[in-house]
Amino acid sequence: MKLTERFLKDDLVGVHFAVNVFLATTVLWLVLRRAANLNPIWAISSMIAASDPKLRQAVSTFNGRIINASVGCATGLFFLILAGSHEIMLPFALAVTVLLSTYFVRVQVMWRQAPITAAIVVAAGWTHHSELSAVEIGIRRVGEVMLGCLVGVGVSWLMSKLWPISEAKTTTKP
Fold first, then answer.
1. Comparing C-alpha atoms, which of 124, 121, 119 is closest to residue 142?
2. How many whole angstroms separate alpha carbon 115 and alpha carbon 97?
3. Phi-psi sector, 161: left (phi>0), alpha (psi -120 to 50), beta
């Protein structure tokens, strides 16, 4: 079957996802770039990871990202405040974050988010001279990540109401 025929016969899940990403990127760009004069890239990357044409999947990913990002933020802040912004602390912070996420929190959806967030927080200290400003930057970046997740799941919810797709259409065909 030709690509154009397949595109027209399919359920347009890719187009649905593209519209989600377009709308959510626009919202984040306007809020963060225009209103707050911040770089929205952290929020946009998180939004893409939390968006999905299937609302159930978007909510599951959102919950996993929020929980694991919180674990990563707390662990990263702990290491940043306790040990400062020494680069040697990054492997320790990430290892501890992985252990906390996998053995204590146990939310496997997006469990890689925990060490990613810890790295974002700890690395914030490398570009700033005081731990206080590093903590502020780390928390702001995590806030941007959380905002991106909220916008991603919010747009997924809105699109599920405006342009619903059936679960059967989104399954992979053999």
1. 121
2. 6
3. alpha
3-state SS, 61-97, equals: HHHHHHHHHHHHHHHHHHHHHHHCCCCCHHHHHHHHH
Are 32 and 144 contacting, i.e. CB atoms less than 8 angstroms apart?
yes
This prediction's pTM: 0.80
Q: Tens of pLDDT along 63-102?
A: 999 999 999 999 999 998 888 777 898 999 999 999 999 9
Q: Which residue has the tokens 């946009």?
A: 44
The length of the chain, given as a count of residues:
174
Chain-centre distance for alpha carbon 14:
20
> Is the Cα torsion angle 50, 39, 87, 82 positive or negative in sign?
negative
pLDDT digits (tens, 9 = 90+) for 121-148: 888 867 666 666 878 888 888 899 899 9
Q: What is the largest CA-CA distance in the chain?
A: 61
Single-letter code of the amino acid located at 26: T
Query: Counting Cβ atoms within 10 Å, is residue 173 exposed (0-12), middle (13-18) or buried (19+)?
Result: exposed
What is the C-alpha to C-alpha distance for residues 90 and 75, in angstroms, rounded to an integer? 11
